[in-house]
Structures are given as C-alpha cells and as structure tokens.
C-alpha cells in the first residue's frame, strides 16, 4: 500500500458529561474534562455531520460517545443517540460506533442493544484494578465487577479498550503495573493511560488542599507512565492515547488545581521508553576496551518514531553519549527509520573507526 493510501483512524467525539454516572469519583469533574457544561441532545446530529464533512477519502471514522457512562444514561436517550449514529453508519459516512462506560453498567441486555446499533468497541473506565484503591477513589464497584464486564464484552465479540489512571490516591507504581498486566490478561485490544490531574470542584482537590493527597510531579508521572507503556507494548496491546485530550481549558488555572497536566506528557513518556531500549541495546554490544576503534552507533526505529527516539531537544542522544562515550566507545549516534519495526522495537548497527578518523568527531549527534 502506498503511503498516501494508508487509512487514518479518526474518532468523532460526542461528549455526554456526567450523564449516567451514579456517583462522583474523587478525581472526577467531567464538565472540566470534556470542556462542556451541558448536554444538548438536539445538537448531536449537527455535531456529527459537521465532523463527518471534514473527513478525507483515506479517513476511517467512528462516532465515539465519550465523557459520561454511556450505557448508564436513560435508556430511551441512549437508544435515540444510537439511532442518530445509525444514520451515519448506514449511509457509509462513518464505519462504526464506540462508547465509554463503567464496568457496573455492562450486562447482556446492554451489549445486545449496542450490537444492534453498530457499536463495535466498548471502552471501560477501569482506572486501577485494586479493591483498596477503588475504595479510596469512591469508584463504586470492585475488581470482580470489572473482570466480569471485560469477559462479557470479549465473549460478545466487541473490541475492548481498558482505561487506566496513573497516580491515583493510595496507588504505588507496582499497583499501576499490576493493573496494566491485568488489562492485558483480560483480553484488551487497546488501552488509554491517564495520569491523574487534580481538577477543582472534586473531592481529590479537597484532599490535596488538606495534604491527604500529593499530586504527581511531571517527571514522576512520565516515569510511571513509561512503566505501563512498556507492559502494554510487550503484551501487544496498543495504547491509543496518554493523557487527556478534550477541552481547550484543561491547562487553565481556573480548572486545574495541580498534577501532571503537561501537553506532551505522552510523547515524553514514550521518549523515556525508547531511551531505556536504546541503553539496553548498547549494553548488549560486545565489550569495549580502551584502545579499540571508536564506534558509530545507528539506532533503527519504527517509521514515525524518530522524534520520540531522539527525545525532546535531543535529550536521549545527549544522555546516551554522556553515559556511554567512554565505557562503550561511542563516537557518533544516528537514529533512522526502518519499515519492518513496530512499537518500541529497535535495532542497533555499528561502524568502527580508527583513532585518526574519529579524533575530531567525538559526540556528534545526528537524527
């Protein structure tokens, strides 16, 4: 397939803030997250039509009911919204429908309705698969409910996306990596990872003000996010997104009290994962002895991954050279694309130089 013919997946989001949600989790302010303070059913068809009109011929689109707990809203409203989306699917303007919801709003009847209305993917807000942490967050369901919902979704033939959070109150890094492993074990086809941002008008904000919860700083959030990205990649589960993406006011001081709300946090975490893989590749090389010819290193990475592998402001290249220029005899570092690589997989190539060839070139970085 030619590059110009590659199909691009796009979601047409329809946000339904807090509709259908039975309780307010300590971290949740869906109106801030979605950038919407109300829901106007009469405007849904127009929203979808306007978004669909912008699609290119190579775009593959889904209507996505996000923001609240879609399968928990008033049943008649849910079906009316699905009937609107039916028109766009059946006309060929979009390919399918997805929705996000809670594990305790999944049963056989609900899945039957979704199937009748072209829903092919269900995203579950799992957050953390630990009963103690779910209790602290006032999530309103337990891990067994989540397991049961995931099992039903997969058995009924839907794609499953597990949504999880980093830095929840009471959660340690090992709780997050355990949650990522469990999401994989339950057959997830994809995942979303949300570092915890503290919004005003939430119980979590009150907890932070009282010193009962300390929001993650950006560097810690990057490191902990990297750990779960590593698990998902090794288990073959595609991470659709890292961090919140909706609502232009997400970084506004009027909305956000604290937490890792860096706009490029996902890119930074991915860069750290590449850095780990790059270091491991260098450490797998034959030992370098003083007096041996210096070595030029080329890292081959998947197409489109060069900027992440290089790191922000070439951070990864600088760190690798500083760490390995003497111990591994590294002279130059290049990062190039290779078609057959995927995910965070890399290959390393070496070129040896004599001292005369390298005496004036140490530390040159290319990408």
Task: Provide structural commentary.
By secondary structure, this protein is an alpha/beta fold. It contains 13 helices and twelve strands. The protein has helices at residues 30-34, 44-52, 75-90, 108-116, 131-136, 143-155, 173-185, 203-209, 218-234, 265-283, 306-310, 315-324, 355-358; strands spanning 8-15, 59-66, 96-101, 119-127, 159-166, 190-195, 198-199, 238-242, 256-258, 294-301, 330-337, 347-353. Residues 355-367 have low confidence and may be disordered.
List the helices and strands and how they pair.
Blueprint: E1 8-15, H1 30-34, H2 44-52, E2 59-66, H3 75-90, E3 96-101, H4 108-116, E4 119-127, H5 131-136, H6 143-155, E5 159-166, H7 173-185, E6 190-195, E7 198-199, H8 203-209, H9 218-234, E8 238-242, E9 256-258, H10 265-283, E10 294-301, H11 306-310, H12 315-324, E11 330-337, E12 347-353, H13 355-358
Parallel strand pairs: 1-2, 2-3, 3-4, 4-5, 5-6, 6-8, 10-11
Antiparallel strand pairs: 7-9, 10-12
Helix pairs in contact: 2-3, 7-9, 9-10
Radius of gyration: 23 Å
**Low-confidence segments, ≥5 residues, pLDDT <50?**
355-367
Give the terminus-to-terminus CA distance.
26 Å
The chain-level mean pLDDT equals 89
For the sheet with most strands, the description reads: 7 strands, parallel
Percent in strands: 15-25%
Question: Using DSSP, what is the number of strands?
Answer: 12
Element pattern in H and E: EHHEHEHEHHEHEEHHEEHEHHEEH
Oligomer: single chain
Number of helices: 13
Structural class: alpha/beta
Strand arrangement across the biggest beta sheet:
1-2-3-4-5-6-8
What would you call the shape?
A: globular
Helix content: 25-40%
């Amino acid at each position: 397939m030619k590059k110009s013919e590659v199909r691009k997946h796009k979601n047409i989001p329809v946000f339904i803030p807090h509709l259908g949600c039975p309780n307010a989790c300590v971290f949740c302010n869906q109106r801030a997250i979605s950038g919407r303070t109300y829901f106007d059913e009469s405007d849904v068809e127009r929203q979808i039509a306007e978004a669909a009109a912008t699609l290119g011929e190579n775009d593959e689109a889904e209507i996505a009911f996000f923001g609240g707990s879609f399968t928990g809203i008033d049943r008649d409203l849910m079906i009316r919204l699905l009937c609107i989306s039916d028109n766009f699917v059946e006309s060929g303007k979009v390919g399918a429908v997805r929705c996000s919801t809670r594990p305790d709003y999944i049963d056989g009847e609900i899945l039957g309705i979704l199937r009748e209305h072209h829903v092919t993917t269900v995203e579950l807000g799992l957050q953390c698969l630990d009963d103690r942490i779910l209790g602290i967050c006032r999530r309103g369901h337990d891990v067994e409910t989540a397991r049961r919902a995931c099992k039903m979704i997969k058995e009924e033939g839907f794609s499953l996306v597990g949504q999880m959070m980093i830095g929840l109150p009471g959660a340690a890094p090992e709780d997050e990596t355990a949650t990522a492993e469990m999401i994989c074990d339950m057959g997830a086809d994809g995942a979303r990872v949300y570092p915890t941002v503290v919004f005003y008008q939430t119980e979590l904000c009150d907890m932070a003000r009282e010193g009962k919860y300390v929001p993650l700083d950006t560097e810690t959030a990057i490191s902990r996010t990297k750990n779960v990205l590593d698990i998902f990649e090794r288990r073959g589960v595609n991470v659709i997104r890292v961090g919140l993406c909706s609502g232009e006011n997400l970084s506004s001081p009027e909305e956000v009290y604290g937490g890792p709300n860096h706009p490029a946090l996902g890119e930074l975490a991915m860069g750290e994962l590449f850095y780990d893989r790059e270091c491991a590749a260098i450490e797998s090389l034959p030992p370098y002895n003083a007096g041996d010819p210096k070595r030029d290193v080329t890292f081959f990475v998947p197409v489109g991954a060069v900027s992440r592998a290089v790191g922000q402001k070439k951070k990864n290249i600088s760190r690798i050279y500083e760490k390995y220029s003497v111990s591994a005899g590294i002279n130059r570092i290049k990062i190039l694309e290779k078609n057959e690589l995927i995910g965070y997989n890399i290959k390393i190539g070496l070129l040896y130089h004599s001292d005369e060839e390298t005496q004036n070139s140490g530390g040159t970085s290319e990408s």
